[in-house]
Design a protein that fits this description.
4 strands, Dna Ligase, domain 1, mainly alpha, 4 domains, two-stranded antiparallel sheet, single chain, 10 helices, two-stranded antiparallel ribbon, elongated
């Protein structure tokens, strides 16, 4: 009987120790689910599930235990709705940190860029250069070489035919996109936005009038110091158009001279000979100024 008790005790001890170490191993999955010597990048495609990503990591030998990781997520559910992209995963990531890296992390192959309203093609080009996508000259050349839509006035006197027709907004672009792609994307985004506004407001505005509308809008945007001034500037422009008076908008002189709006403009500058200078011409400038 004594031998039986000893045997049972040994089995019980082994069972308890095994359970203890199994529990420790299971809990360790939460803190250290990965087997990595260095940080890695993980590619997530559209509609990929987190379990699918785990299986891919496991196939590469990056996961300690696929089954226990899935069990842990079943017992302790997390929001595992992923977004497509390429994400950095640190080698010492916990399970929660792994999920967060793939769900909320920044796509390392993507650049976010904000084009403010009122920016000229040259200023937009500088933004892309600052982000390291390509040079300012590359963007300007792409804008100059872009096939001009038939509704846009293509004149040798315009600085850039596409000025005013590249939509300002916040965009995410994959690293490696060239300037030709970006210019095309920005123009098509502009057209889509115009068509949406026209549809929403149930107005008739064919493309032959877009140049006029955007030219006026660009003057308002560049001349007004803030949103409150825009209504006043708009009224001034439309009133002067109605009475046939030169618009005399300083922002057109700044654009004609190739200056920045923060640069000082002198009285002599108002005499610059340019189809953009509304002090010298009695009409709208030849095209948008932003």
């Amino acid at each position: 009987m004594k031998k039986v008790l000893i045997a049972v005790s040994i089995v019980l001890i082994v069972f308890l120790l095994g359970g203890f170490f199994a529990y420790r191993y299971y809990m360790d999955i939460e803190e250290n689910p990965l087997v990595l010597d260095e940080d890695i990048t993980v590619e997530v495609s559209e509609n990929d599930s987190f379990y699918g990503v785990l299986e891919d990591l496991d196939s590469k030998g990056y996961l300690k235990n696929l089954i226990l990781t899935k069990v842990h997520l079943t017992v302790n559910p997390l929001d595992t709705n992923l977004k497509p992209g390429t994400f950095k995963v640190e080698k010492n990531s916990s399970l929660v940190e792994l999920v967060e890296a793939l769900r909320d992390g920044e796509d390392i192959n993507k650049v976010t860029i904000t084009i403010p309203e009122g920016f000229t093609i040259e200023k937009i080009a500088e933004l892309f250069e600052e982000k390291g996508l390509f040079t300012k000259e590359d963007f300007i050349k792409a804008a100059e070489d872009y096939p001009i839509p038939n509704w846009i006035l293509d004149s040798e006197y315009r600085r850039y035919a596409m000025e005013g027709f590249l939509k300002p907004d916040t965009y995410d672009f994959k690293i490696g996109r060239d300037a030709d792609y970006i210019v095309d994307f920005l123009y098509k985004s502009f057209v889509k936005e115009m068509e949406s506004i026209i549809a929403d407001q149930s107005i008739e505005l064919n493309t032959s009038l877009w140049n006029r509308v955007i030219t006026i809008a660009s003057m308002i945007e560049r001349e007004a110091a803030n949103n409150e001034e825009m209504r006043t500037v708009s009224s001034v422009i439309h009133n002067r158009i109605d009475i046939g008076m030169p618009l005399q908008i300083d922002a057109t002189v700044v654009y004609a001279l190739g200056l920045d709006m923060k640069d000082k403009v002198y009285l002599k500058d108002l005499e610059v000979d340019s189809p953009y200078n509304t002090y010298k011409i009695n009409s709208l400038p030849i095209g948008p100024i932003a």
